[in-house]
Batch of 4 targets.
Target 1
Amino acid sequence: MVSRSSLEVEYRALATTTCEIQWISYILRDLQVQTDLLVVLYYDNQSARHIAHNPTFHECTMHIDIDFHVVRERLQHNLFRLLSISSNDQLADVFTKALHRTNFKINVSKLGMLSIHHLA
């Protein structure tokens, strides 16, 4: 799929994650597993977070209107909670983008990852 902006890519990822959360909740319900825990998603894109919480459409959402409805409805039904996180604290960035060496080492240590090539 070709996206027209980084916001569109981020929002489509949010919509995909929303669908996965719903699928897991259906599986747990079918297995009769009771859970009262609310899923919390930490998101570092403020624009995507604003669109998810804002009931009015913006010009930049014209290509992601279906995803907008999916995320917005699930947020309203309390399927999950969307919280912001600083990009510096976003641990997933170690897997998705080039980081400064210091940030890379900090994130790797937070994930508990060890180098298999490091001499003991």
Note: The longest helix spans residues 6-30.
Target 2
Amino acid sequence: MAELKEVLYDISRQVAISVDNMLAYTRLKELNASLKRRNRYLMDHGTDGDVPDEFVYASKCMAGIMDMVEQVGDTDVSVLITGETGTGKDLIARRIHEMSRRKDNLFVKINCPALAPSLFESELFGHAKGAFTGAGASRTGRFEMADGGTVFLDEVGELPAELQAKLLHVIQDRRFEKVGDSRSIYVDFRVIAATNRDLEKEIEAGGFRRDLFYRLNTVSVHLPPLRERPEDIPLLLRTLTDKEAKKMNRPVPFYTEGVMKRLCGHCWPGNGREIRNLATRMVILKPGMSITERDIEGLIPSAGESSSSTSVKSLAEMERQHIEQALIETRGAVGGRNGAARLLGVPRSTLQYRIRKHGLHPGDYSGPKAR
């Protein structure tokens, strides 16, 4: 009896060892596949070397946005980032990824405007060998590369309507088939999307799917343009100037008080991209020297051309009065079919931000229009 127990114990121990070895082999195989995907992606697409290490800011409005980003970062919900071109939507997307449990896996960026409809499925889902003429080898698609990581749909509002249904299907089911292959692939990824378009207006016009919008817009983050947060301009400008000077191995130029005041009054229609271009130009043309107002002539409007503090204040007052009139017309309703946001033609999140900026309270306008 004792011998039988010893034999059974030995068998169970060997089975346990075998199971552990199988699990270790499976984990090693998964890790190897993940590393191959990462290497393939980096070989094909490289890294964004021009992306700053962090999103710099000094304004209260950006501090509030970054608090929201921190709260949503460690979740798996989809995030829609809105804002004008150059406001840093891609930086915020990366920040969310880096704060998540997925940070050790790939952040796969998909530039939606650059996707050709004929190559959409092959690019995003991959293809099997011989799937079509020229497919001499199988290809791993972007979504499969993002397994365990994050898919960033940059400028998703530019995606043609005929491709939106295919994208929605993948986001809903997390399953797809490679072109030329009937086997279904399951992929675990998080979705972050960005756009400079008003998707609610696009939906009303029939240019964007409502169901896709709600899939992407679990949490929305709106990035205000630089003209609405001038206190961020000095810090951003100095940070970018230091970075460009270091990259070019040149002495850092410095901005006089008068120049910085004038730059803070500029509306920056190109936002972060425009301010980066100015920093690069100054590093090249004025290395280690003081930048004067003469150096920025022709680049930034003069005080009499609409950049003075008086002009900015009057524009702000006009915006406040415009919002007030819209709230009066809608009796304090901000969103919805008959809300002020639709009346003004802006996203609800944008209007809410501007209402807070001007210290307005929609409830104060809920009475009769004769107010």
Note: The CA atoms of residues 244 and 281 lie 9 Å apart.
Target 3
Amino acid sequence: MNLLRHLRIGPRLGLGFFIPVLCLVLSGWAGVQALQQVNRGLETVYEDRVVPLRGLKIIADMYAVNVIDAVNKANAGRVDAQEALKLVDEANATIQREWKAYMATFLTPEEARLAQQAQDLFGAADRDIARVQAALQTITGPAQGRLEAFDGPLYDSIDPISAKIAELIDLQLRVAKEVYDAA
């Protein structure tokens, strides 16, 4: 304090303004850093949680609606074999594309484990879908009553995938909430 008493009025006033300005600059810098951290959190919530939620829903819908529903409609005579084959082919391509995009996002360790379990289940479904596609390719016109053999196997191979996808969706929501709480 003695040092300040020996300073002339000009330097004292300068220090009187410099110290608050320095505190203001440091406070602003800390605020910018905090906003950048929140922004990174929001970015990861969107890119690694919200977008994958959409992809996971599309995958679940493609299996349950497009594949199973197309086979059921063809078997019931509501659509012909060619239309059912088109729906199954589109679903299969969409599933592959969406899964690849999902796997390219940041996965937590738990999410990676669940994703691997889901991917392991895809094999049985892929085999059953390939069998359905092969059968539909051999049918021209209506397929009414000709696809009953696929009902059970398709449900048996797709239902576990739907359950695993539901687990992945729950995980997405939980991790998004954790990031939100941290922000």
Note: The CA atoms of residues 127 and 157 lie 9 Å apart.
Target 4
Amino acid sequence: MIERYTLPPFDKLWSLENKYNVWLKVELAFLEARAELGEIDRTTVELIKKRAKFDIQEIAQIERQVQHDVIAFLTNVASYVGEPAKELHYGLTSYDMVDTALALLMLEAGEAIRSALEELLESLKKKALEEKYTPMIGRTHGIHAEPITLGVKFLRWYDEMSRNYERWQHALENIRYGKFSGAVGTYTHTTPELESLACKKLGLKPAPTSSQIIDRDRHAEYILTLAMMATSLEKIATELRQLQRTEIHEVEEFFGTHQKGSSAMPHKKNPILSERMCGLARIVRGHAMTALQNMVLWNERDISNSCVERIILPESTTLVYYMLKKTKDNLDNLRILRTNMKHNLELTRGVIFSEAIMLALIKKGLTRQSAYDMVQRAAFKSYETGKHFKHVLLEDTNIRKYLDENEIDSLFDLQHYFRHIDAIYKRVLG
């Protein structure tokens, strides 16, 4: 049964309430750093922490008047804190709080995605081991090529998603930065020491340089990595869609007892999960282009990136998390049609062994071109006559000058194509 679930990490994570909670957490961390360095009395900090709270509806009312979300937030918090609120946001600019909080939110989303990615990797590894020696035809240009195993296909996906995992680790470390450097990044009314201490309290590192904001190449890398991840998932989904085609029908998505495939055609069983993954990947890739454009801002900043990030960060993280979960479900419940795989292996009546025949002729002394031409003529005759490729070879007097019946027969050994499977697995899994 396909697992049904919601997206609890992201329903809460990107909510207004959580954003304001994290904003307040950042402000309080800066106050604690100031107290630790003797700039403010600790009793005042404790009083502020005790009183500090906010009301979302009140913030919205204030923002309608002032047209500035951070001022609306600080005004609302100050109404609860009272006179000591003058110490809130002291020496800071809006994005000292916003960007530092954004890093925390992106890291929280990133951890949920990392966990989902780890689960998918386990599923891919399990499938790769289970189907290690399941024979199937390999295809290039959509045409039968040479035999492979289904396990190797899963192993390739595992290997690629492992690289996505490494990239994601790097992207998370590169977003683990905060800033408290003031209006243009020069610490006019704060200090690098304060910044370092406040960031440490939040589990972040201070950005080595900043303008009014943290430079957006960090955020672009984060979303670009999500886009690569989504595209890898689309690659898997595209392959599953191809293999479920009626003419191929080697795998099949889970189809529930009461599930329907078409309003018009009762016979239909469509690969809807895989199709959905392909569609969602397009959205995430589009956000990657937008993230790149966000890197370019006027002078020490403008706010053209701000409204954009309120869309692309929640959407990209939520969609990739969902895609990872759904892809795992799809693979865990995938129906593998081994009989059809065997049928398709034999569909072209042995011409898939053509390279082995050509190389055997070359070993007998023929030039590559001569051997190629001889085998190509035999393969095309097999296509045209419907005879098995082996029989055509046995009837070909030119080929029989070089290869006897036993030699030809030995070249149709399927296991020959799988003799290095263990070596491939060892490279990937160790």
Note: The chain is about 65% helix and 5% strand.
